[in-house]
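Chapter summary example.
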Amino acid sequence: RIYHELGDRLKEAQLKEFTGDLYHLKKDHTTALEYLNGALAIYDSIGFTRLQGAYGIIGEIYNNKGDFIQSLRYNLLAMKTGEQLKDTSLLMSTIYNRVGLSYFSINADSTALSYFRKGLHLAHSNTDTGSIQLLLFNISDALRKQGAYQPALDTLMAAAAVLPSMDVYDQAQFNLLALNIMICTKNFRDGEQYFRQVLDIYENDRLSGSLVQVMRVFIAEYLQATGKYRESCPYLLSFFAAQSSNHATLSRTTQAELLS
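The structure predicted for these 260 residues follows.
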């Protein structure tokens, strides 16, 4: 309101965008979109074109809402806007990753890989080790889906080397990705170490949210693949109970991953 009364339309729009992002982080999608669309309207009225950040946030909100058509639309808008402005910042690495994930979720793996690699290039240019590791994780999983198992495993090990001291979420993701490769190749001897790591993280209640659901599915899948059907039942029952109690479904990306 203050910037509106002062007539500083750019500051007013930037404040709306910032507020919208805060509501996005609080998972209040409706309020977030109201502020972000308000920001876009002001930006448009003053001819401000650096909109890739706002488009990217809106794309992420629609992804979280499960509206993947709108998510892809806004992520592509963010990407095209950034490219037109020759933006080579870390934001563009994030945007390429989001576009890649959108294509990954509909099993367009070659297209997803091309965007992950673009994001990786910018992550290296901006010397951001966290983004480098994340994109290597995603490249590894896309390679696995294409059946390129050894390159997928090599890429995953390269990701682990980028940040050897991973937090528990990254440890879980690394071990889940490695376990999935081992399941796909039926290499249960080497897979046992990753299975034990996933199981340890799960049993010590060190994670929450949708990643716990993914862990339950992969634990059950590994047990069934090794002939331990009875032992897999508690994890599947916990998975379906959590789905029912939360009245929610996994993201489309996760669903595609579990079904691939």
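To summarize the output: Residues 29-46 form the longest helix (18 residues).
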